[in-house]
Amino acid sequence: MRYDWRCSAYSRYLPGKSSMAEKPRAFINAIATACPPHDIQKLFLSFIPECLPKEHGAIFLRLMERSQIDHRYSCINLTGPEPAFYRPEDQQFPATGARMELYKKHAPLLAHEAASQIVNDEVRGQITHIVVGSCTGFYSPGVDCDLIASLDLQPTVQRRLIGFMGCHAGLSVLGTADEIVRADPKNVVLTVNIELSTLHFQRPKSVPEILGVAQFADGCAAALVSARRGGLEILEFGSRIFREQAAAIRWDITDQGFEMFLDQRLPKILDEQILSKMAGELGGDVAMWAIHPGGRSILDVIQKRLRISDDGMRFSREVLRKFGNMSSATILFVLKEMLESGIRGNGSAMAFGPGLAVERMRFKRA
After folding, report:
1. How far apart are CA 23 and CA 182, in angstroms?
2. Would you say 242 and 269 are in contact if contact means Cβ atoms under 8 Å apart?
């Protein structure tokens, strides 16, 4: 017999079931991820020194050795095919229009690769909403419409786009899905975070200019969120903006792509100006820590400030090592590792982004 998501999930909330109505709950039932085929980490380490002044190349390589990143993936191959998209001899890298053409080509393919792993014949007809998050590209009709077609979803699926929020938008997308399910437990939401960060490399003029973006990579994560019990139960979300630190993270659209600025003092700012003020909100009985891998130094200060064990940080550090920072998709990669590990207990997810914003999610294993 086919399992009907909507009927079984919704039955708990029908009148007459109990004297007190049970509050709707939402669950992350499944997570799938995908990366493009080109592992660029080694190529990047040889490519960037060609762009830098000679005296800066060795400094860059020494700093990158400490990054704890072994692999990063891109939708483009830095070595070709000819003509290469980025060439060290060019004074300016490609214009924004050329970058968006590649986003339009590759984003729907990678999004389909991730989403198709969890959208099977049983689920396909049950999906009522799709929420797409991305800060690395735009086109319209967009990834949401392309996915409805490629996954053969109903044309009545409602669509939401969360754009240009930054690395913490993975939790913003899940929060939107949570609200949709809690508003009506019949709803089943497909979420997709698709980021092609490597389309926005800028020609570096110094080591500080490139270190901030040297950790970024491409990746996609999809999730199913519904009232059907199973997976990770969402408990609550939290959001806080520290406006006095807004200049520490910026994401600007320029004629040569989207330009990322990360203050070199960001780990110190997070430690002394952000986490120190939020320590009381972030502790408690936490068995699972899902920290956005914004970089090794950021993970280091979070671990020290919140007194998280090495075991508690293993999921975030492993994702950083294997994939780098894939902006908003990265936190879903961490949650997927956690979901597949079988670990149980209360969990806390946290990510940072422009604002300076901190997004949080409390959850537990269902």
Report:
1. 8
2. no
